[in-house]
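Progress against Task 2.4 (sequence-to-structure conversion) is shown through the following example record, which the project officer requested during the mid-term review.
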Amino acid sequence: MAEDVLEELEFEALRASRLERFKLQLLRSSAGKRKRELSSLFSSSPDRLNRKIGKIMERYNDLARDRDALRLRSSDGERRREPRPLTPTSCLTKCSLHGRERDKKQVIKLLLSDEYNCQGVYSVVPIVGAAGVGKTSLVQHIYNDEALRSKFDMKMWVWVCQEFDVLKLTRKLAEEATESPCGFAEMNQLHRIIAKRLEGKRFLLVLDDAWDESLVRWTSLLVPLKSAAPGSRIVVTTRSAKVARMMAFKIHQLGYLTDTTCWSVCRDAALQDRDPSIIDDGLISIGKSVAAKCKGLPLAANAAGSVLSIAIDRKHWETVEQSDLWANNEVIDHTLPALLVSYNSLQKPLKHFFSYCSLFPKEYVFRKDKLVRLWLAQGFAAADGESDAEDIACRYFDNLVERFFLQQSPSYDHNEQRYVMHDLYRELAEYVAADEYSRIERFTLSNVNGEARHLSLTPSETHSHEIGEFHASNNKYMNEPQYPGLRTLLVVQRTKHDDGRKTSSIQKPSVLFKAFVCLRALDLSNTDMEDLPNSIGELIHLRYLSLENTKIKCLPESISSLFKLHTMNLKCCNYLSELPQGIKFLANLRHLELPRIDNWNVYMPCGISELTNLQTMHTIKFTSDSGSCGIADLVNLDNLRGELCISGIENVSKEQIATEAIMKNKGELRKLVLQWSHNDSMFANDASSVLDSLQPHPALEELIIMGFFGVKFPVWMGSQCSFKLSFLELKDCRNCKELPSLGLLPCLKHLFINSLTSIKHVRRMLSSGDHTSSGDFQSRTAFPTLETLKFTDMESWEHWDETEATDFPCLRHLTILNCSKLTGLPKLLALVDLRIKNCECLLDLPSFPSLQCIKMEGFCRVNHLLQLPLFSQLEMLELRCHKKLVSLRKLQHISPFHSLRLRKELVHKVSGCEVLPFQNPSVQDSQKTWTFLRCAGQILECNVVACTDLTFGQTNVHSSEEEIGNGVIFHIGQDEAVELVSCKPVWVQIGQPEEVEIICID
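Structure tokens generated for the chain above:
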């Protein structure tokens, strides 16, 4: 193709520029195989390109002659007719509204609420949701609800649809307002008619199926409505979250139905007013299975019900159940028109993006970054001068999400950016993709559609470990590419449960590469590939290469000739031992995904600094090898984004530190991990100097420092240089005697300090600093935004300074683990959750007036725990200590707990306790037998956990009050636990009968 030839010409230009730049290095390279490999990168074949250009010109001339002979015009040719959806009206199409009663109540409440009034005449209630989710049906029921009749003087319904012609829509609005046809063609006349008709009246207007995202056009349409009375309402239904946000702040999003509700919709469509009794239990079971395939979409459930209605018998229903629901013509006829409206509304680039999704199977979990990079490999997005191509592609992705073509997976956290596509949208993607995209389960070079430009292999569910053997049917394909038009080849896991499984076997990959020389994207992840052949270098158009979770040990030097490569994914390649020496030639590389630091053992050659376009490189490791990359390689990588972990910093000496900034200019980095691999006090001064030189950009949000063996942290950690820092972890910094002064960082929310074994004193700002004595410093609030604070394994820590009343105003969670010498805590007025473990010198707790939860474990011996009024808000107490508490005093004055958990050997003495107000007590004992005595006249509900030797005294625990008599005794054997749930007053007897101590639990 002409496109490929143009790219080859561009490639030759790139090759020539690389040769000119690195020819001196080439001449100096070592003799033998390495030199031959490097020089092969720069071989050229202009004669081959000349022949290709000649063939293309001949082909174009032939086509031009044929066009003239046939007298063809550009407008000739039959277009594919696409079905159009019916125009919805305000009339009810269904009597029932399954699963939407709550939505209906919420929207009606908004329409009738005075609190929803705005400063203007009307308020807008947007209802947003995917195509076919039931927005119009819901609004039809709301529009015709009796509760609204007396609240509005007028009701109007206008179907907006895609073509947002303000004049036509204004005419429709005038016809609704006057309830008569309108022949006026001038906007002014239409505005006057509408304004006059609405003057002084409260109206309800439904604008159904809105698409347009232009605020100017919307404002023009709504101008004549301002003559109406206050309290008027406009309901807008839309498939675009952007339109909804533009119309109002409060948005009602309509989600998918449950499988049970889907079955109700499906059943109604199947019955078609017939007697419900004709569907027996057997058919119900089949019907529910069919309804589950609809994935909560009412439109699909209606369509499935229509198919089932053809014959109410087991044979037909089983056929529908076992078939591909979306391949059924009647289902397609019911659902496709509505979905095509959504597709046709997309911009041209978005249509390419959506069609590309057809390469992935149903229930596939998408990663945003991966999909965007695959799109970029095909050239679907281009830089526009203000934004680069990747940022534009990300915006397009978000647009697909806003229009519900993709939706965030509920199984993943928002930060992980995982998305799924509804099965019906997946079918739409296949429909519009036609023959250009192909997805197969068994792959040989002979069964690939010759017209396909994008191909994916999805191992089948039944042969997931056998299918996917790549091989050539014979050797004739070794010389000429069999599919020169193929742009994408992906090995795709069927579901997230297959992630990480090696489901495909690759044979003769060199033949594979020769067959598809024009590939832009190649993904061989999760295959059993161990060696990458040199022929990979022939894929000169390649932009995206993923070898994730393969057994690759090394990469051939020929990979360094892939000058257009922008993504190389080597995550989870735990057998990989080194990167190629020529990786520095890949100047267009933007994303280099490497194994995580836990599995890191990859040699990185020097020259990484040449990759100035690099945005993603989560890990870089320095070694003592003179030929490996060093700290100087980081200087020019100012485009790095997201996360970066720098390990092996102990191999960086003070002399190697560059005078210019190393990390200061990397303003797109959000997380930085600095790791020393061993602790050597002999080089403590060097470590301090190196850490000082690694000062990050002020935009950094997360910082982790591990294994630092200097004695002092740099000043920049507590200065304005860390202005946006919200997360900080210091771990295994065993030589540091002072913590950094972090108290004035304005954005710090989470602070974790672990194994700083030389720290004895924690001050108000964590460190004394140079200015703690100044009046201004003392008057400032310490840690104004900190929410979580955790100290772990601080074996020398003895003292924590008192704080001011205004300090730690946001601190909610404090955890102190294995700090055996700590003697006290400061007052923390906002603290809600406290966890203490193995702090045996901590004898007293100060007042924590907001505390709701205490968990104490291990070696603890707090005196006078929980004294009034120190813990007036306490809701949950959990004690799992090895040593005995001195006393539990005056707990009867505390508001009722939600939960109490105790170990039996904890309670040594109970003083001043008549009533303990616990709602959910739980007692664990691993050594002695417990006895529970229940008072007469009180009802006890008990949930017993893991008790194999439980006996009852006078009666069963669930007996009535009369049967119980004077009480019931529980005998619980050794190594058992009992949990008492929702107890009314009950006496708990602790110890053996001859040494009884009593607690009354209420």
